[in-house]
Amino acid sequence: MKKYNLEETYITDIPEKKALSTKDLQVYYGSEHAIFDANLNFPRYKITALIGASGSGKSTLLRCLNRMNDKVARVEGEISYRDVNINSPKINIYEVRKQIGMVFQRPNPFAKSIRENITFALKNAGITKKSDLEERLEQSLKGAALWDEVKDNLNKSALALSGGQQQRLCIARSIAMRPDILLLDEPASALDPISTSKIEETLKVLSKDYSIIIVTHNLQQASRISDYTAFLHLGHIIEYNSTVNIFTNPQMQATEDYVSGNFG
What we know:
The chain is an alpha/beta fold. It has ten helices and eleven strands. The strands form two sheets. A seven-stranded mixed sheet has the order 1-11-10-4-9-8-7, with helices on both faces. It has a four-stranded antiparallel sheet with strand order 3-2-5-6, with helices on one face.
């Protein structure tokens, strides 16, 4: 693998309002330093992609943003959301996750009906009025572009859905809680091209109402759907800029090599 100067970086300052930001973020797995000095501002109501080779730290960084790394890694530095450092030990992480939802790489619907996949968490959150539950159910399934496909089979097991439908159900389940930010860790990596296209279309529509941060190995996907892109290498954020600039006018040699296929 080519050697790059990891101290040389290009991090743009976004003009939009910030949805979330990190300051001097460090992540350690035991003695292994996995993320170095991450300083990023994520814009509101935009899609930000995190790209990089396997092991670059993309998923590690993403999982920090709603405290999913708490039991597996040591996370230092600040993660600011609405002027609050949510990396503080005093923060209620369950409240954080209501505002910052997560969709994982492989669809993980509950072994329940389609309806119960949506309403289960809502009931746990204290929403019990039937009309409210039905409204959230329909709104979230429409938001995930799934309503027309399942509206007549809401009592059917979610496990009977196709992989792409299951992943959109997981997106619906997240947005039913009406979070502010949606994190997605390679949500289409296990899906066929048609399902992938539906997921991408869904995310573009959702970005009007949600701030979205997505990890993807698929450079074409990042270029198609994201507004901003951060390129990571060996735990360092090498470059962060508008997606157009990352793919057409990268400032760092490592970024140019990666997006042009000359990396490694």
